[in-house]
Amino acid sequence: MASLTIRKLDENVKTYLRLRSAKNRRSVEEEVRVILRELIEGREEPLTPLAAPPDVAPASASQRTGALPEASVTLIIGGGIAAYKSLDLIRRLKERRIEVRCVLTKAAQQFVTPLAVSALSHERVYTDLFDPQSEFDAGHIRLARDCDLIVVAPATADLMAKMAHGHADDLASAILLATNRKILLAPAMNPLMWNNASTRRNVAQLQRDGVALIGPNAGEMAEAGEAGVGRMSEAVEIAAAAERLLRPPVPRPLAGKRVLITAGPTHEPIDPVRYIANRSSGKQGFAIAVAAQAAGAEVILVSGPVDLDDPDGVTVKHVESARQMLEHVQSSLPVDIAIFAAAVADWRVANEGEQKLKKTSAGMPPLQLVENPDILATISKLTDKRPPLVIGFAAETEHLIDNAKSKLARKGCDWIVANDVSPATGVMGGDRNTVHLISRKNGENDGEIAVDSWPVMTKEQVATELIAHVVKSVADKSLEPAS
Length: 483
Ligand SMILES: Cc1cc2nc3c(=O)[nH]c(=O)nc-3n(C[C@H](O)[C@H](O)[C@H](O)COP(=O)(O)O)c2cc1C
Fold this sequence. Notes:
Blueprint (H helix, E strand, L loop, with lengths): L10 H13 L4 H14 L19 H5 L5 E7 L5 H13 L2 E7 L9 H8 L10 H4 L3 H7 L3 E7 L1 H9 L5 H8 L3 E6 L3 H5 L1 H12 L3 E2 L3 E4 L6 E5 L3 H12 L11 E6 L4 E2 L5 E2 L6 H12 L3 E6 L11 E4 L3 H11 L4 E4 L6 E3 L19 E3 L3 H6 L8 E8 L3 H12 L3 E6 L11 E2 L1 E6 L8 E5 L3 E2 H19 L6
Parallel strand pairs: 1-2, 1-3, 3-4, 4-5, 8-11, 8-13, 11-12, 13-16, 16-17
Antiparallel strand pairs: 6-7, 9-10, 14-15, 17-19, 18-21, 19-20
Helix pairs in contact: 1-2, 4-5, 4-12, 7-9, 8-11, 13-17
The structure holds flavin mononucleotide (FMN).
């Protein structure tokens, strides 16, 4: 049976469903089920768009671009004085683009009303395990699983005791027992209840079971004259803890590092309309730039002429010739890591025509070639601004490893990524690459040379692997930041 994730639906469909479910006082999932049932029975309501109420805000920029992934929480509100703070928590979660569906225990309804909770969450509120409206298809199981996280706030001593002992005699405890989602508890109770031996045992058991806790904080209690540990964490603290569990921070091992990457071919002009080029697509260098940026580095990509979109979050400098590429590379220094993946032309035309060269009866114009600057060797041999880690690429069509080893020695770089670009491999312009990482053992100039041969990979995989090696090297050497 296919399952439908509401939050992945088109915004207009979602808005329609939300409005229709609110009108019918049903949850969005229930509304979808009703629509499907009616369709099957041939008595569906016409899909006329419901007028949006005036306070429905247009999608924010982040919603339109999908910058933040949506997430959903089942919020269980227990019967404690702090239940009023859960009303604010609903707002704080929604601010973070987290959908909230609420469950109130019987005791919680003595402190906050289902109506207030429903008005703030824009969803139906659930209170009863034996509700025929939502239990026709085991609604408590849906509440337990159709979410990314369960938050219990306030988590009463009673609810935690039930959880620790596996009780399921009401909707909240049945959901907590039936879930396979992460659970976050925000305990709130009188300090003596919190310090009671049975509560201590229950909390310890729940922590062993993998349940996450936020708080309680120390402070004044609702009971006059009492203070101590037991106040529920503030709504913003709970929302932030929920967000950390829902969207764990991505590791950024190259944060604070500047990485310079070259990519693509160079075009060496013959005259204003003609040039010498090579078959490099720039895909490998661009993939490395994306991987370095994802690892948190500040990335400068100097690219020859390519047919690729500039990667997001990367500073791209577009150049044509080898000399322009060198100029931009030099002006981008200092950097912590330089990766020269561009296929720079070895030669350029010495006698570049100022006007378009014409066919004449005198025969073909003699094209004199002169050597281009060697960007890899120039940067590797710098004495002042040499990047601590310089990586070159060797594109060879024969004697790959031997040629790459001698290139490593000749150019003075730290590593060479050697790839076989003979036509049969399809590497030039293709999406896959087979590479060998050639480096000096122990980083010594006169030391032994290590060859690490990688299996056939996509260029993105090669990029990820190379950046993983860079991260390891940075950690081992603890490179000083470029200044
Ligand atoms: C005024 C009042 C305030 C209460 N505050 C708390 C509290 O902060 N924490 C707590 O664990 N229990 C508190 N209780 C006790 C719970 O409401 C009681 O244990 C109830 O059975 C909890 O039900 P629940 O866990 O299903 O929500 C309070 C009771 C009353 C009458």
